[in-house]
Specification:
The structure is a homodimer. Chain A has 21 helices and 18 strands. By secondary structure, chain A is an alpha/beta fold. In chain A, α3 packs parallel to α4 and α3 crosses α15.
């Protein structure tokens, strides 16, 4: 069979059965092969960053890589911001990039570029195929590399002639990796430190923020009084009524440092020592108190939930966390008031269905909305990981492809949504059950604060022009309709509750433009 | 003064007075400094690729670089596709990228990445600032690098603390480069070869395709019978009634090779030996006949127009080209027929105002429209240069910023427009006089042909899903309105003529969605 078919069949043998693509000429053989390999699902994105962000969202929900398929170095360029985010999420992604045919590469054609150089900044593994006969082996190696704990972007660059040439049989599946456990000594030593009674915390990241890890951490908390902190930028956290709660580390360094004040020991579980998002004049970047001791119970590539269970056992923790008192059930906001982020938080918390998935790119509205969701039905929360905005809609798309039976809610800042709005079109095409709430303050509102914090001073008239998004006001109802998604606007709390309730009842996709005041948020 | 102000003032000293930006926290000092440096114009883009493509368009029309300002490595990532296109256009661009403050870089914050590695594939020059005191010198060096003939992307990466620290006075302007001329020997030798009478052609690229170069080439044609070919991917070609015509090299290798069949000698003027866009099974990538001799009259970095004048003089060519017979004036298409690309070509040719600028990203409709424009009023034609689609709208935006007194017409494929539709918002914000014609065949139509050509065979049912753009049909009237641009749809030739005539009379921006049949074009 030709190389393209060999690639698709090898991916399938490795349980990679979704390919998010924006193909061009050099990828035509892969597109053609879809008709001969029906188990491979092809999903088209109109912009590469939609595909790469969707692969991230898919990996976060399944633990398995999707494949992406891009057109040469510059097409890959458009995917890089969300591949960066996927890298920081530790999401496995099999990133296939078409290349000019080998005999064409010597000529300096318009699209000729150093494709591997485009791939390197976001990839843990990069390989350019050298012979068609290596196709199967290389595809399995790419899957193995993507899945190497804790997960990474593996980029395989394929010259077009290797797709149209004979490539032999598909390769066997790569062995699935297993994650290491901490040594008994390490567990004993950390248990002893926790028993000392000095103020301590667990900092969870990676897979430790899903139910198994959270339950074990809560048992440790019961046994020792250690607090449980959550990495703000971890790929996925299970939250909601009845789920053991973690204290999320705040965005700005001052409140983050205040939260950890007094902590003398941080037990890292798939986590690194916490650091602020940006550095500021005269402020420390590290979040933990000076002199705080760090113990790695599980490194990023190790099995955090199992490590937490071993630690709980070593500590003689109760077999289950005594049920924490449930928060009061969320109440809907009052109706006739102008819409606020607080009201959105209340409404989403009250109306979120069980086992929903929340893609969170709320940026400046986050602190007003996120806390309310702790009282919502249990759900998975998928936040910003790498900080490059334009992640929220594609991650929601990928999560919906991964979990068609679950409602996906994207809580999305209007500035951020502008980087990858084409995601709406693919949501419509694939009839995905996504509710997109556009938090329309019509401003890069976070920059009002950052302007002050970086010492740049007040926003002058001309600086204001770089932050204001009202001239013209983007109309998200029309934009969504232009991409084929039904949309409505809400400007009061009552309107928002009504349209959100309808959107939660009916299948998506749907967009709600939630008009918010543009005032400067509290830092 | 602080580093940010020093940077802006040094750029101004170098005649760089436009900054296309999508800033974040690490760039706040630059935004703030706009209020202290009013001669620097800041223009906001909602997506980085809009800014980088606009910088390309601006450079093509002015010969001067604009600055771009992006947020760390991943923000730069979003700009790379159009920086690739700018690189292939040989456009000077001063690409400023903010970086984490130096003390923050040691921590692995979410946005931390290898920013220089993001910049390298598209940049001829990359420098990461090492001290605030070097700011002025580095900014002048970046401008000098951008302007180094023939022009390139110069990327300067600036850690945030160097923007907020004292940086001293602005640097003096860098000396403007001059372009080299061919030696007298080279000119004599090429003149002798042309006098031999063997079939010969001039292949013009770069600045040789503007009026001075075209007039000199036409004199050489008169004196020797040599044909004049135009690099299809050159940044800018002046065309229209009374402008010496060039034969554009076709996209596909077979017609391109047919055009050059019999040519025994190609004189390269700021051009490289021509090559096909893609390689195909069993086809040559080079376009010139085997055995064709190449003579470089002017290398890419040399002064092609002056070199052509020297050659014309050496050949004793007439002082001016005898006026070529003017083509018949363009006629408007008949009204009640369904709209076709041919009709669009006729209408644009008839209605294009004098000295308009045409940004051409027509892709599969190109061959039906482009030839008609030869009969239009004189205009500058800005085509695809690097082949990464999503270039046309941003280039039109940049050309309009460069030439506010000239009408800009973007002829834009609907698939391509989907990569950077956010350009429409900046057109509205800056009230730019741009008419955007969206050629809406609702299909990646070029891929129908490429599917056959790459040997992938007929488009099957599942491959069709990766090429079809009708489920859902993007609604460009709503999308444009969502971005704040007035828009109309035309489905007959008569409607198109009426709305295009109105758009040509009135100030822009305006969008016309021109609905085309989706049939497979003739190769």
């Amino acid at each position: 069979m030709n190389g393209a078919e060999c690639l698709l069949r090898t991916l399938l043998a490795n349980q990679v059965d979704l390919c998010l693509m924006n193909p061009g000429t050099s990828e035509m053989q892969f597109v053609s092969a879809l008709d001969r390999v029906p188990a491979m699902r092809g999903v088209l994105g109109l912009f590469e960053g939609v595909c790469s962000g969707a692969a991230d969202g898919y990996a976060r929900m399944t633990g398995r890589p999707a494949a992406t398929l891009f057109h040469l170095g510059p097409g890959l360029g458009n995917a890089l911001a969300n591949l960066h985010n996927a890298r920081k999420a530790r999401s496995p992604v099999v990133n296939i990039v078409g290349e000019h045919s080998t005999q064409h590469l010597d000529h300096d054609a318009p699209l000729t570029a150093d494709t591997a150089a485009f791939a390197r900044p976001v990839s843990g593994w990069v390989r350019t195929l050298q012979r068609a006969a290596c196709m199967g082996e290389a595809a399995s190696a790419a899957v193995a590399a993507a899945l190497a704990p804790p997960g990474q972007v593996a980029s395989l660059i394929i010259p077009a002639d290797f797709s149209w040439s004979e490539a032999g049989e598909p390769a066997a599946a790569a062995p699935r990796p297993t994650r290491a456990l901490p040594s008994a000594d390490r567990v004993r030593s950390i248990a002893a430190a926790l028993r000392s009674g000095a103020p301590a915390g667990l900092l969870l990241s990676g897979s430790a923020l899903q139910p198994r890890g959270l339950r074990a951490a809560a048992r440790i908390r019961s046994a020792t009084g250690a607090r449980i902190f959550g990495d703000r930028y971890a790929a996925r956290t299970t939250r909601g009524r009845g789920v053991p709660a973690v204290e999320r580390i705040p965005y700005f360094p001052e409140p983050a440092q205040a939260l950890l004040a007094g902590i003398e020991r941080l037990i890292l579980v798939e986590a690194r020592p916490p650091v602020s998002f940006f550095g500021y004049p005269g402020l420390r970047s590290s979040i933990a108190p000076p002199g705080c001791a760090f113990d790695a119970l599980a490194a990023e590539h190790e099995d955090g939930p199992a490590a937490l269970e071993l630690l709980a056992q070593e500590l003689g923790a109760p077999a289950s966390d005594p049920a924490a008192p449930l928060p009061p059930p969320p109440e809907l906001p009052a109706g006739d008031t102008p819409l606020t982020a607080e009201a959105i938080g209340l409404a989403v918390a009250a109306l979120l269905p069980d086992r929903a998935i929340v893609s969170d790119e709320m940026v400046s509205s986050n602190e007003q909305i996120y806390p309310h969701l702790a009282a919502a039905a249990p759900h998975d929360h998928l936040p910003v990981t790498g900080g490059s905005i334009g992640q929220g809609l594609p991650v929601a798309l990928g999560a919906a492809l991964a979990c068609p039976e679950r409602k996906v809610v994207a809580l999305e800042a209007d500035g951020s949504a502008m980087y990858t709005p084409q995601a709406l079109w693919t949501m419509a095409r694939e009839r995905l059950d996504v509710v997109v709430v556009i938090l329309a303050n019509r401003r890069y509102r976070i920059l009002d604060i950052e302007m002050q914090r970086t010492g740049a001073g007040a926003v002058g008239r001309r600086a204001e022009e770089m932050i204001d998004l009202t001239r013209p006001v983007p109309d998200w109802v029309r934009l969504a309709a232009g991409f084929g998604v039904e949309a409505v606007r809400a400007a009061t709390a009552g309107e928002f509750v009504r349209v959100l309730a309808a959107a939660m009842r009916e299948p998506g996709p749907r967009v709600i433009e939630a008009v918010l005041p543009a005032g400067v948020p509290r830092p």
